[in-house]
Specification:
CATH superfamily of the largest domain: NAD(P)-binding Rossmann-like Domain
Structural class: alpha/beta
CATH topology of the largest domain: Rossmann fold
CATH class of the largest domain: Alpha Beta
Strand content: 5-15%
Bound molecules: nicotinamide-adenine-dinucleotide
Number of strands: 9
Order of helices and strands: EHEHEHEHEHEEHEHEHHHHHH
Helix content: 40-55%
């Protein structure tokens, strides 16, 4: 039986680890949060007392951590000293390209195989095992990586060499942040014009403004599929996480010389929303700000 160490059992990692356990793999799970560890235990994983205990003897190590500094620290200080030589290490967090490349080089030097494999799809897809993975890795490792990710994925695509998965993810999420704001503005205007939200959803989702933010992650409560907006904007993709990704995009744009004025505007708006105290709310909560109803948050 394949043994998987799963580190980081938050909104995303919790469901992902559960799907590995459902696929009859032996999952040793670790998170700093006792509550997250308890949920993983209930989902069929074996809780570990530390990263070192989780990765010891694991064939595959999967991480789903908040940001670059966590990934660098966990791999260099905790995974590398304790994991089995030759183990396949897969980081699914969204982080900057430079950190991904630096961690990949450090792990390769120590005899591990590595992949940056960030995901698209959100918490619902993490729970359902239908995430899209974008992978940066050595070409010869891709088949094993695809197999390792299978219980959690709808599709896995190799983007290129180390860091390419993160590059694809940063571009994707910059477009996502812009599209979410555009969708929220359209609903806010529709309300002012006296349109019924359900009728507008029905029309827009079948017209040229159709996008994932509208049809799969509708920011207006009560219309479209069940999303974070129907749960008081709790438990989805936090505003602080979206802001992190938009900052990564702006940083990458500045370094590469790409023109991303809408991405810059999205970063400014999410930075303000975060500073107003809504960093823990789902990123679709900007809907209530843009319609002037912060009181409902
Ligand atoms: P989260 O904050 O819910 O989960 C992160 C988990 O990592 C937490 O449970 C935390 O306790 C744990 N953690 C932090 N440091 C640790 C350490 N040193 N050792 C062990 N555990 C540690 O975040 P999330 O929403 O699950 O997002 C995780 C990653 O996935 C982020 O990089 C995010 O950008 C990305 N992502 C999130 C979504 C989404 O919809 N939430 C979608 C795609 C990608």
């Amino acid at each position: 039986m394949t043994t998987i160490a799963f580190i980081g059992l938050g909104n995303m990692g919790g469901g992902m680890a559960a799907n590995q356990a459902k696929a009859q793999r032996s999952v040793r799970a670790f998170d700093l949060s006792a509550a997250a560890l308890k949920r993983a235990d209930e989902a069929g994983c074996t809780p570990a007392a530390s990263v070192a205990e989780a990765v010891k003897d694991a064939d595959i190590v999967i991480t789903m951590l908040p940001a670059g500094p966590h990934v660098r620290q966990v791999y260099t200080e905790q995974v590398a000293p304790s994991a089995r030589p030759g183990a396949l290490l897969i980081d699914c967090s969204t982080i900057d390209v430079e950190t991904a490349r630096a961690v990949a080089a450090a792990m390769q030097e120590k005899g591990f195989r590595f992949a940056d494999a960030p995901v698209s799809g959100g918490v619902a897809a993490a729970d359902a095992g239908t995430l899209a993975f974008m992978v940066g890795c050595e070409a010869e490792d891709f088949a094993d990586i695809e197999e390792a990710l299978k219980p959690m994925s709808r599709i896995t695509i190799r983007a290129g060499a180390f860091g390419a998965g993160q590059a694809a993810k940063i571009c994707n999420n910059m477009a996502l942040g812009i599209q979410m704001l555009a969708t929220c503005e359209a609903f806010a205007l529709a309300e002012k014009l006296g349109l019924d939200a359900g009728a507008f959803f029905e029309i827009a989702s079948k017209s040229s403004s159709q996008c994932w933010s509208l049809t799969a992650y509708c920011p207006w409560p009560g219309v479209g599929p069940q999303t974070a907006s129907d749960r008081g904007y709790e438990g989805g993709f936090a505003t602080a996480m979206m802001l992190k990704d938009l900052k990564l995009a702006q940083d990458a744009a500045a370094k590469s010389g790409a023109a991303t004025p809408m991405g810059a505007q999205a970063e400014a708006l999410y930075a303000l929303f975060d500073r107003m105290g809504f960093g823990n709310k789902d990123f679709s909560a900007v809907q209530q700000w843009l319609r002037g109803r912060l009181d409902v948050l």
